[in-house]
Amino acid sequence: MSTLPALGGGSAADQERRAALRRMKAIATGLLIVLAIVFVIAFALQERYPWLAYVRAAAEGGMVGALADWFAVTALFRRPLGLPIPHTALIPRKKDQIGESLGDFVEENFLSDEVLVSKLASLQVAAKAGAWLAVPTNASFAAGEGAVLLRGVLDVVSDEDVQRVAEQLVRKHMLEPEWSGTLGLLLQRLVEDGHHRGAVDVLADRALAWANEHPERITEIVSDRSPSWLPSAVQRLIGERLHRELTGFLGAVRADPQHAARRSLDEWLAGLAQDMQSKPETIEAVERVKRSFIEDPRLRQVALDSWNRLKDSLSEAAEDPASELRIAFESGLRDLGTRLASGDPLADKVDGWLRDAAGYVVKNYRHRATELITDTVASWNGQEASERIELMVGRDLQFIRLNGTVVGSLAGLAIFAIAHAVLGG
């Protein structure tokens, strides 16, 4: 069971409350003692001075009222005079039920959907927040706090955690799903719509340009692969012929959209697309390539280096008030504030989001809030909780004792006066 902060010390406010409580208790008790003295004197002298009977009646009624209200107030927090009187020390004995009742009261009167939605609707949070953000100094302050938050997040998040989460996401969303069927369907659509023809044109252009710029390479290739006994002049003639045939072929492919080579390439790509969607051998080959690419340690290192550079850049930009990131963020906040404060429809949307979010939180978690109140009160030490509550409200309760004393005195005087007038004495 938890305990509340000790009552012996406490804050300056607690000390002030404690002094005020003692003062009011002293006043109420002192008034009771004064009435008791008046009662004794008036009772002793009323035969000699008949008018003192009225004083005695008033004092008697005041003592009764003071004692009754002292008992009532004291019975809330402890047993009067330490006696085991039933239905006393209510707060220490009934604190759990009080906590449950308090939780139910808060849930029914403060956490209901109607109350919260009505309150949020009347507050116009978006417009007020927008008016605040539209002030340049406030936008600058908000941007600075956002930068502090960003730096804190970057400091807390470790590189190992980021790498582990990234690997989990890659494994779940990239490695586990099969790519072959999707890539095959994509390739099929590209071929059917003819989107690959532009790439074929580029390849043909580059190949033709290379062949025209490097004719000697053809001759070198022929020489490297020809028998040693073949004369060099013959090798050169063969190389030149091959170069003419190659450039002519590439030029024809580039110029004729219906060239046989293009049609053959279209058929091969269409067949590959079908195989990637249905042929087990092709599917497995694509998956092997995918796994080798994603699991390559060099790719992991590139990802980690990219994250480190991004983190360093964000940290530096967040710390520098003159950085483009801070300036853009601050400007964005001002613009957002101006929109929200000027009656832009966005303000209504934001208020609607807030109401929806608050309604969701209240609907799903209000019982947790009341459980927090109930469980917290249940965990308190009964005696300490009673003393703490008395410290907070006891001073005001002492006015009940004072009022009871005054009302009792007036009632006693009125009853005696009426009885004396009606019945005589």
From TrEMBL:
One Gene Ontology CC term in the entry: plasma membrane
Transmembrane segments: 26-45, 51-77, 402-423
Any Pfam family matching the protein: DUF445
Matches recorded under InterPro entries: DUF445
Keyword field: Membrane, Transmembrane, Transmembrane helix
Identification of the protein by name: DUF445 family protein
Source organism (scientific name): Galactobacter valiniphilus
